[in-house]
Design brief:
The complex is a heterodimer of chains A (about 375) and B (about 240). By secondary structure, chain A is α/β, with parallel strands linked by helices. Chain A has two domains: about 230 residues, no CATH class; about 100 residues, abc type-2 transporter like fold, CATH 3.40.1710.10. Chain A has 14 helices and four strands. The relative contact order of chain A is 0.11. In chain B, β9 and β10 form a beta hairpin. Helices cover about 40% and strands about 25% of the residues of chain B. The radius of gyration of chain B is 18 Å and the shape is globular. The termini of chain B are far apart. In chain B, α3 crosses α4 and α5 runs parallel beside α6. The chains are: A alpha/beta (about 375), B alpha/beta (about 240). The interface between A and B is medium-sized, with 26 and 31 residues.
């Protein structure tokens, strides 16, 4: 135990003597939180719309004004013909083209049907389906108005009245959804990189050899290497929660002690993984690349940006090995829904197994013999 | 007789694949002796010193250091040896005092003992005024003397020095050897590798390795007689040439 304290003392002195460390610990998380919360969003706003109006009538302008009046669309000029619109679609100047036939007004006035063509740039599939859905609902709305105008006496009330309630995030604010995930991201980055760099640094400067001739035990050394970053990452989480509260007004609905207990458990897994990488590599460069490789995959598959449920089956199975996925899920549940232990106990047990396995592996992989 | 031998090596082999780094080494080092372990680059010295200090396991053979078998008792062995390698081994971003405290701590010394030892060793080096200085601010020769002091801080029975004076100026080298002699006079066994043949003359006995084998082992004066030359330098060259 005394040995571990001496290692801890040394590690803390080294961390805080390094002048780049404090900014990394406190400035980087704030920037991540502020920048990512505002930019990592799937909300569709400001869709650039071009209109090809072959009819130029009162009704066609009425339809167009419905689009320009909506918050989602920005009318980017009117194209004279479809070719011109297609060209700007190609240049990505516009995202969507609405083509109105000539005879649009005439047909409608005569009680006949007519066509409106909607062309959407679908390079980003999910954005395209949203744009197309918005456009369709505006046109449907317009359609209904015309029918009501033409037949004022008929009651077109819908047989089923759908009332939508959005729970846990009533205003569908993307930031509320993203922040718990970004907090996970931030403690993961700090924990993984600091631990992955630390042990291998001793290998690079050669001090590991001196450590290896001392009677120090493997578990003592690994513990001494792990605890400082474990504490620092927990402080970072607390710091991130404070920023989330003051900047975005997000409070933790669930239990704070529960959140920190699970964060501590999760960090053991992440730090263990970082140390494992550190024991398997010989230079900081190798360690950095492998950590990046793992983190990019873990983060992209974690459900931070896209729901895990819509990933292919093999990816969902892979996510059993992805600690980030567990904690993002749990953190969203605690912060946004106020869930308790019983709601995610399966994930907690899996995290415990994960942490134990990774740490055991790191301790056995770290060889005191050359 | 056995008790007097602090290092006993019998039929030591170390193989890396097809390459035999240590080919049937047999020697003993007496307690309190200054033992020079010489050889050209790649002769297998570092491999042997790593086995003796418990960093590496022999492929086969018996190796007893300070009474402990390197195969089975490497942790007890480590408690009783000091080690200083050619790669600089103290922490540059810690102060002199913090380095002593850290290494003293992991050898299980008491806080009081660490303080007393640090004080005494720094006083000997005339460096008490620099105890709160970061190590990276000190010149190489000073650092090497500090590294030696740290290596003997926990009173080991034997100290392994792997080219301790590499890159150090002649005056500092001389001072370094004074430190070695002092420790030796306290009964500590010194096991040292070097490429400086004047340093080989300071040793009580030297062995010279070539291509994984010990080609010669005796006192410097006997070796010179045996090879009929005047300096250790010539002894070294003759052995290296004979093998090539």
């Amino acid at each position: 135990m005394r040995t571990i304290l001496y290692i801890l003392q040394k590690e803390f002195i080294q961390v805080f003597r390094d002048k780049t460390m404090l900014p990394i610990i406190f400035v980087v998380p704030i920037i991540q939180l502020l920048v990512l919360s505002f930019t990592a969003t799937f909300e569709i706003k400001n869709v650039n719309l071009a209109v090809v109006d072959h009819d130029n009538s009162v009704l066609s302008s009425k339809l167009i004004s419905k689009f320009s009046g909506s918050a989602f669309f920005k009318l980017k000029g009117r194209a004279v013909n479809y070719k011109e619109a297609e060209l700007s679609l190609k240049r990505s100047d516009i995202d969507q083209v609405i083509v109105i036939q000539n005879n649009f007004e005439k047909n409608l006035n005569q009680g006949q049907s007519t066509h409106v063509q909607v062309v959407t740039n679908a390079i980003n599939g999910s954005a395209a389906s949203l744009m197309s859905a918005y456009a369709n609902s505006i046109i449907a709305d317009f359609n209904r108005e015309i029918i009501v105008e033409e037949n004022p006496l008929v009651n077109f009330g819908l047989p089923i009245n759908v009332q939508a309630n959005f729970w846990y995030n009533p205003e569908l604010d993307y930031k509320i959804f993203m922040i718990p995930g970004i907090l996970v991201l931030l403690v993961t980055l700090i924990g993984m990189f600091l631990s992955a760099m630390n042990l291998v640094k001793e290998k690079e400067i050669g001090t590991i050899e001196q450590i290896n001739v001392t009677p120090i035990k493997k578990y003592q050394f690994i513990t001494g290497k792990l605890v400082p970053f474990w504490i620092i990452a927990n402080i970072d989480l607390a710091f991130g929660l404070v920023v989330a509260y003051f900047v975005f007004g997000i409070t933790v609905l669930g239990s704070l002690p529960l959140l920190f207990s699970i964060a501590s458990l999760y960090l053991l897994a992440v730090l263990g993984l970082g140390l494992l990488v550190s024991t398997m590599t010989n230079t900081m460069q190798q360690s950095m690349f492998i950590s990046w490789f793992l983190l990019v995959i873990f983060i992209m598959m974690s459900g931070l940006f896209t729901p895990v449920e819509s990933m292919p089956n093999w990816a969902q199975i892979f996510n059993y090995l992805n600690p980030v996925a567990y904690f993002i899920k749990i953190n969203r549940m605690i912060m946004l829904k106020g869930s308790g232990f019983a709601d995610f106990q399966r994930e907690v047990y899996l995290l415990i197994v994960y942490a134990i396995s990774v740490l055991t592996l790191a301790i056995t992989r770290y060889r005191k013999r050359v | 007789m056995e008790e007097n031998n602090i290092i006993i090596v019998e039929n030591l082999f170390k193989k890396f694949g097809n390459f035999t780094a240590n080919n049937d080494l047999n020697f003993v080092v007496k307690s309190g002796e200054i033992f020079g372990f010489l050889g050209a680059n790649g002769a297998g010295k570092t491999t042997a010193i790593k086995i003796l200090s418990g960093l590496s396991k022999p492929t086969s053979g018996k190796v007893i250091v300070a009474g402990f078998d390197v195969n089975t008792q490497s942790n007890k062995l480590k408690q009783n040896i000091g080690y200083m390698s050619q790669r600089f081994s103290l922490y540059d971003d810690l102060t002199v005092k913090e380095n002593f405290r850290f290494y003293g701590g992991i050898y299980g010394m008491s806080a009081k003992n660490i303080r007393l030892k640090t004080e005494a060793l720094l006083k000997r080096l005339d460096m008490l005024n620099y105890k709160d200085m970061l190590l990276k601010k000190l010149p190489l020769g000073w650092k090497q003397k500090l590294a030696f002091s740290v290596a003997v801080m926990h009173d080991p029975a034997i100290v392994f020095l792997d080219e301790p004076t590499g890159g150090v100026d002649p005056i500092t080298r001389r001072q370094f050897w004074e430190l070695i002699y002092e420790k030796s006079s306290e009964g500590v066994t010194i096991f040292v590798t070097t490429h400086y043949m004047d340093e080989a003359e300071y040793c009580q006995r030297v062995s010279i390795m070539a291509e994984g084998k010990i080609e010669a082992l005796d006192t410097p004066s006997n070796l010179k007689k045996q090879f009929n030359v005047n300096t250790m330098d010539e002894v070294f060259v003759k052995i290296a040439r004979k093998v090539n």
